[in-house]
Specification:
two-stranded antiparallel sheet, alpha+beta, DNA binding (chains A, B), 247 residues, HTH_MetabolicPath_Reg (chains A, B), six-stranded antiparallel sheet, Beta-Lactamase, DNA-binding, Tscrpt_reg_IclR_C (chains A, B), homodimer, DNA-binding (chains A, B)
Chain lengths: 247, 247
Amino acid sequence: MDDTKLTVRAVERALDILSAFTDETELSLTEIAARTQLHKSTVHRLLASLEGKDFVTRNAETEKYRLGFRIWELAANLSQSDDPAIMLQPEMERLRDSLGETVSLYVRDGGERIRIQAVQSNQAIRRVAPIGARLPLNVGASSKVLIAFAESEVQKQVLEALEWSGAAEKQSFVRQMTEISRFGYATSVEEREPGAAAVAAPIFNRGHKLVAALAVSGPSNRFTVEKMKEHASQIIEAANRMGKMLK
Amino acid sequence: MDDTKLTVRAVERALDILSAFTDETELSLTEIAARTQLHKSTVHRLLASLEGKDFVTRNAETEKYRLGFRIWELAANLSQSDDPAIMLQPEMERLRDSLGETVSLYVRDGGERIRIQAVQSNQAIRRVAPIGARLPLNVGASSKVLIAFAESEVQKQVLEALEWSGAAEKQSFVRQMTEISRFGYATSVEEREPGAAAVAAPIFNRGHKLVAALAVSGPSNRFTVEKMKEHASQIIEAANRMGKMLK
DNA sequence: CCATGCGTTTCATTATATGAAACCGGGTTT
DNA sequence: AAACCCGGTTTCATATAATGAAACGCATGG
């Protein structure tokens, strides 16, 4: 076992303990021990350290542990961050590393969608589209998302833009939209570019307003429909997390 | 050196690193090392652990470290807490342990103030007042705070209630109010109870609305005017932190 | 009164965190 | 270019410090 550890086990364990509080707001020592698969004694010591630094406190009534005020302090100094494109980048990289495909971020600007951030897949064959690119809003997974979750007014506009096309087209369009808003994500296969496929999910800010679409895209032979469905929930989760960062 | 350590040093250090981000949103490894008085190598290992668990990430541009999304996750699950009296209790205990005096929390209800939470000094001689007690709004440090930082309408009401008293009284009252709102805290010595003194600071929620007054009180011989002034900033800080927890 | 469950403490044993020093890469200066 | 500096990263010998089994204290309640 020489897979050189460049991390500190005790710290990782302590952080696991903190992470346990994503599910529950209050946990007893033994509950924590159970969740983290650590021995009581260890958890106790770790909790003592966390409590000493005010990362957790005990509810004097229930004797259980909960997150301490230091988390607030950190979170406070955190939300005032600046450029969303930069803020969201780390999370996008996480997703890229997890799925191995290019991840992009789009916003809607009138009848266009603009690619405001991207982290490239590091695989040999990959989709490329420059940051800042202005793309049509009528094709592509992210476009659909940006429409399906937009205010109804925007949707009306888009529908009117379809004026020239047949009633069947319109109907299909409407059905697609309802489906997307139902499942929470959209897919596209070779819509804008031959050989390219993508999944996209909406990003809502803390005020529940649609602000962007998060898209994962790759070559359609590698990025099959099954794979896309398989990854959808993960992408949606990432989008949710990202949304929480935006006010 | 047998002062039994029931804490884990590595963890404490890691938490110190996290705490460093209360001041700055972005720090480089060496900056952190300087602040925490730890050796580069150690910081590096600790940061690797923190990064692995997504408590910090690196801004891909600047190569510097910043807080990771796990902090958001935690903070998110944190803010939905329920009863302010319970939420704020740990922070009040901190203050009590630091100053050694009884800490109370008051809200205004019409022409009264209500004590909604308290953590007692553990010293022999101590001020006592039961939770839920409804007290007059015209005397006491916390009363003054609850008036001085209230909407002007409330202040007008209180002033009208002083109708019967002389113009000099009124003027003195107004001057006191402006002073309090200027310095951010109020004091009282033997106003409501002989032998008792108190300092109070306002608690504003995240919407900058006055929601409560935080008071520290003790016997006036022990809790002198000098001591009160000395502790004022600490009390104000605690009140600020507590306010951040309330939406 | 004895079981049960939880938090806390002790303690020997060894894994494991530590920090000095060396290393690496990329800028900047000479 | 060579030399230098300055971040970040890795290595490695050392003893420090984290570990977990077990025991303890202390409630609660069967």
